[in-house]
């Protein structure tokens, strides 16, 4: 469970799995999802194990999500934008 250390001052609106969410302008999709306590953001291709952002610097690929219909987006390397539709990635896309 995560909480923001600072309140959102410049909100950006997006959806995760169709659920309306709010982020701080300038933060990454991964930071926004962690702050939103969404839990797992993807499942592995072989076992289906749940995964969530880990390294936050583009190295581990645990944060892969689908953004606006495009799979395999690294949430930790993608800045959140107004109106983004983010969904969990299930297995290999
Ligand atoms: S959290 Fe490791 S690559 Fe995104």
Task: Sum up the structure in keywords.
single chain; 93 residues; mainly beta; seven-stranded mixed beta sheet; 1 helix; 8% helix; 33% strand; globular; binds FE2/S2 (inorganic) cluster
Please give the oligomerization state of what you see.
Answer: single chain
Based on Cα principal axes, name the global outline: globular
Summing up helix and strand content along with how strands pair, one would put the structural category as: mainly beta
Strand segment tally: 7
Radius of gyration: 12 Å
The ligands found in this model are:
FE2/S2 (inorganic) cluster
> Taking all residues together, what is the mean pLDDT?
96
Q: So how many helices?
A: 1
Q: Beta fraction of the residues?
A: 25-35%
Measure the end-to-end span: 28 Å
Largest sheet: 7 strands, mixed
**Percent helix among the residues?**
under 10%
The H-and-E topology, N to C, reads as: EEHEEEEE
* Low-confidence sequence ranges: none
